[in-house]
Amino acid sequence: MKIVVTGCEGQVARCLVERAVSHRAIELIALGRPELDLALPQTVVDAIAAAKPDLVVSAAAYTAVDQAEDEPEVARSINSLGAAAVACAAAQMNVPVLHLSTDYVFSGEGDEPYGEHDATGPRSVYGQTKLDGETAVAAANPRHLILRTAWVYSPFGKNFVKTMLRLAESRDTVSVVCDQWGNPTSAIDIADAILHICETLGADRQFADFGTYHLVGSGSTNWSSFARAIFEASKRLRGPCAEVKDIPTSEYPTRAIRPSNSRLSTQKFEGVFGWKMPQWQQSTDKVVERILAESHAGK
Ligand SMILES: NC(=O)C1=CN([C@@H]2O[C@H](COP(=O)(O)OP(=O)(O)OC[C@H]3O[C@@H](n4cnc5c(N)ncnc54)[C@H](OP(=O)(O)O)[C@@H]3O)[C@@H](O)[C@H]2O)C=CC1
Ligand SMILES: Cc1cn([C@H]2C[C@H](O)[C@@H](COP(=O)(O)OP(=O)(O)O[C@H]3O[C@@H](C)C(=O)[C@@H](O)[C@H]3O)O2)c(=O)[nH]c1=O
Ligand SMILES: [Mg+2]
């Protein structure tokens, strides 16, 4: 099975490339700029057609949440129109598309985990453009799986875990918001789940459960407790650590509004795919360990 993933340097793309190595029946190709530029739809169609995939994973996106508030048109061209172009290219090849989306499509009211059918209500440009992307993907390709994930971290790229470890190198205390709740998710675990989906689709040509799914790490927390878990893991390995000061969101002003509750329920995913994501604490420990090991090795 030949799989194309969009974006070469993205966290999910890099983890997929790495994890696919142990799946003998899967060949994974990452396509990114300049060959495939989501802001230039024709490059998307041409690059995907040339690769002749059996399935497309749409992971590339404009993910700078605050910056998106200042350049909504750029975010829209990538997250909405670009996503549509990827789904369209897959449809033209008659293959399914797995499109990644976000918890930020929700408004954040209440304190229950959101289900797939709950009303959306993005508070940010990023969330709105990702929601529009979902709609466009579903319209362009009936064989779509929209996977909403959240709070993604990994040894690669930019993420909260790496930011916290970096801040701890120069500070004794880091102030982190304690009133936004969600599900930290390792991109390595996302990659493993996606490869499991690919195997399921490969084995079942009649697969009929296309649609939207929530796919996040098991268990939920808030950002300050997540930061504490990162420092505890790092401290055990003699890496950088800092005290975490709990602050309300009002003391950490940002351009974009973030949902205060974006917990997602993974029940539907577990039922259909028979796959449960690891607890976020276990995955956090593993990723922190790897970041520290790779920083020692000078990578
Ligand atoms: N990060 C997170 O916390 C979360 C992410 N998601 C979603 O999951 C998916 C994967 O996220 P993640 O791996 O963290 O993303 P990253 O931010 O790590 O990577 C995004 C990738 O998109 C690429 N990209 C950006 N613009 C374009 C463009 N115009 N054309 C082609 N490629 C482009 C980037 O390329 P380059 O390297 O060249 O800049 C990069 O490779 C995204 O759809 C995101 O919205 C959902 C919830 C949480
Ligand atoms: C760095 C830092 C952040 N924060 C807050 C800001 C924010 O509310 C929270 C997390 O910071 P981030 O910059 O990682 O937040 P953000 O970039 O909004 O993360 C989001 O990215 C997009 C792509 C998604 O799809 C979401 O699921 C989510 O992961 O922590 C602090 O309170 N103190 C700090 O020192
Ligand atoms: Mg960020």
Write down the secondary-structure element order.
Answer: EHEHEHHEHEEHEEEHEEHEHH
Going across the biggest sheet, name each strand in turn: 2-1-3-4-5-10
Which value, in Å, is the CA radius of gyration? 19 Å
Strand residue content: 15-25%
Say which CATH homologous superfamily of the domain at 2-159 and 185-218 and 262-278 is assigned. NAD(P)-binding Rossmann-like Domain
What's the rounded overall pLDDT mean?
97
CATH topology of the domain at 2-159 and 185-218 and 262-278: Rossmann fold
Q: Name the structural class.
A: alpha/beta
Overall shape: globular
How many β strands by DSSP?
A: 12
The protein's oligomeric status is: single chain
**Helix percentage range:** 40-55%
- Please work out how many helical segments DSSP would assign: 10
Ends apart, CA distance between termini: 31 Å
CATH C-level label of the domain at 2-159 and 185-218 and 262-278: Alpha Beta
Low-pLDDT runs of 5+ residues are: none
Describe the biggest sheet?
6 strands, parallel
- Distinct compounds present: NADPH dihydro-nicotinamide-adenine-dinucleotide phosphate, dtdp-4-keto-L-rhamnose, magnesium ion
Enzyme class: oxidoreductase
Family: Belongs to the dTDP-4-dehydrorhamnose reductase family.
EC number: 1.1.1.133
Domain RmlD-like substrate binding: 1-291
